[in-house]
Design goal:
By secondary structure, the protein is α/β, with parallel strands linked by helices. The protein has helices spanning 21-32, 69-72, 99-116, 151-170, 192-202, 220-233, 251-261, 288-293, 302-321, 323-330; strands spanning 12-16, 36-41, 60-63, 79-85, 119-126, 174-179, 182-183, 206-208, 214-216, 218-219, 241-243, 248-250, 268-270. The protein has a domain at 8-183 and 219-245 and 284-299: 3-Layer(aba) Sandwich (Rossmann fold).
């Protein structure tokens, strides 16, 4: 059962990155709860924002590029109860090749938003578990000092630090949340779970590393529950919050599970590719704060979340990847 969001009725809310994966799920939930939602997007076009299709006519679209100070200045006269800051460059591997774009999107957009953006009563900064890097202590504790292992992680950590700096200076009401790996409908196929599901559904070979590294994966609606609970119950916390299940799985076992649930004929070639540079071998959330102080726990189990996602991607593959089906529906 999903978290009730009745406390958000008629609240003025801004979601940056609202056309993205997690941001769009939050946007849909808030709209259905009766919130007055504004979304920052680069293009005021449903073609570029298909995740918002169901609520497009119910939200206020603000066309702005947060990397550009002149563009962000268009937000100056707005005022919101809550700002949920999701906007980001979010691919870890590609960030090694797109360093400048990554820094501009993940750090300078946050600087522009705080220095030239709207007024707000509470700011919820969405970080990433990737910032921890290689930690000696497992599961990852939010009190430990991060050791970023990628340009993406470095930029996300810098963004969080700047938000905390501004909060100390201005006494703004700030919450910093670090979600751990998230999955579900509408996620880009660049992420590991949708990539595996789509390849399995299409019967393509699955090539992976040895798969000994562990990750925890959280169904997107569980993460939305945690974000909304934090916004409801916390005021200006002076430390970041881990949001995750503390329930890891080896990547090779994830591959086998998805292969089984999709009844796939794909050939599994585990160990066929090398590990990426600076591989983090274990990522796991120490989550006592959210479980004890917020009363958060996953409402959708990992396996049920996988099955829900597989059903969604079956429709996605039929509509967008099956060429005969695609052109039939398009025409």
């Amino acid at each position: 059962m999903l978290l009730s969001v009745k406390n958000y009725k008629n609240k003025k809310v801004l979601v940056t990155g609202g056309a993205g994966f997690i941001g769009s799920h939050l946007t849909n939930r808030l709209v259905n709860a009766g919130a007055k939602v504004s979304v920052v997007v680069k293009y005021n076009s449903i073609i570029n924002c298909p995740r918002l299709l169901k609520v497009w006519d119910k939200i206020n679209i603000i066309e702005s590029d947060l990397r550009n100070m002149d563009s962000v200045a268009s937000l100056k006269n707005f005022s919101f109860d809550y700002v949920f800051h999701f906007a980001a460059y979010n691919h870890v591997g590609d960030s090694f090749r797109h360093v400048t774009e990554n820094i501009n999107s993940n750090l300078f957009s946050t600087i522009s938003l705080f220095d030239h953006g709207p007024k707000f009563k509470k700011f919820i900064h969405i970080g990433s578990s990737e910032i921890y890097g290689k930690q000696k202590k497992i599961p990852f504790d939010a009190k430990e000092i991060p050791v970023p292992m990628s340009p993406y992680a470095l930029a996300k950590y810098s963004s969080e630090l700047y938000a905390r700096l501004k909060s100390r200076q201005t006494k703004n009401n700030l919450i910093c949340i670090r979600p751990f790996n998230t999955f579900g409908p509408y996620q880009s196929e660049k992420a590991i779970i949708p990539e595996l599901i789509i390849k399995c559904l299409l019967g393509k070979d699955i090539k992976t590393t040895s798969g000994e590294q562990t990750r925890e994966f959280n169904y997107v609606e569980n993460i939305i529950d945690g974000i909304l609970l934090a916004c409801n119950k916390i005021t200006n916390l002076d430390h970041p919050i881990n949001l995750g299940s503390n329930n890891p799985i080896k990547i090779k076992n994830l591959v086998k599970k998805i292969h089984k649930y999709t009844n796939s004929k794909s050939k599994l070639k585990i160990g066929a590719i090398k590990h990426r540079p600076n591989e983090i071998w274990k990522m796991q959330a120490e989550n006592k704060f959210v479980t004890k102080n917020l009363g958060w726990k996953p409402s959708v189990s990992f396996d049920d979340g996988l099955k829900k996602s597989i059903e969604w991607y079956k429709k996605f593959v039929k509509l967008y990847i099956d060429r005969k089906s695609f052109f039939k529906n398009l025409l």
